[in-house]
Design a protein that fits this description.
The chain is of the alpha+beta class. It is 39% helix and 30% strand. The strands form two sheets. A four-stranded antiparallel β-sheet has the order 3-4-6-5.
């Protein structure tokens, strides 16, 4: 067989598998599951190891969770949050910030090796001043 035939066969096989996946998803929907199945994430691979969790990746790279809160002026804070990347983690942070009466501006979110890093300027404190330690404690939890 030539390379062209091998590639053509591989494409055909992948298309058949994709079709089977679609059919199985449709069957699941018909069986009463009202929400489509969650897409599986590919396992992380580090130095030949498979199925490493985000928590293990953080440990392998020596990354420590942290929260830095620095006041800029009376109604602005700068934050940096490093945490384990997980489903809903950013949403929880946004809810906490909203409970503090703050809004995000100039925000950067970066993810790598199971870790999420957020740095942002926060504005809009309702009473004009906020205890930085209180903000740090709320964000850490």
């Amino acid at each position: 067989m030539t390379k062209a035939y091998i590639i053509k066969d591989a494409i055909t096989y992948i298309e058949e598998l994709d079709s089977q996946v679609s059919e199985l998803k449709d069957e699941l929907m018909e069986l009463g599951n009202n929400t489509p199945p969650k897409e599986e994430t590919k396992p992380a691979i580090i130095k030949g190891e498979i199925n490493i969790t985000a928590k293990e990746m953080i440990k392998n790279y020596g990354i420590e969770p942290e929260v830095k809160v620095i006041p800029i002026d009376d109604n602005k804070l700068w934050i940096k949050v490093v945490y384990e990347k997980k489903m809903g983690g950013f949403s929880q942070l946004v809810e906490t910030i909203n409970r503090l009466g703050l809004e995000f501006s100039d925000t950067n979110l970066t993810t790598s090796h199971g870790t999420a890093v957020i740095s942002s300027c926060l504005e809009g404190m309702s009473d004009g001043c906020l205890n930085v330690e209180e903000a740090r404690e709320l964000i850490m939890n």
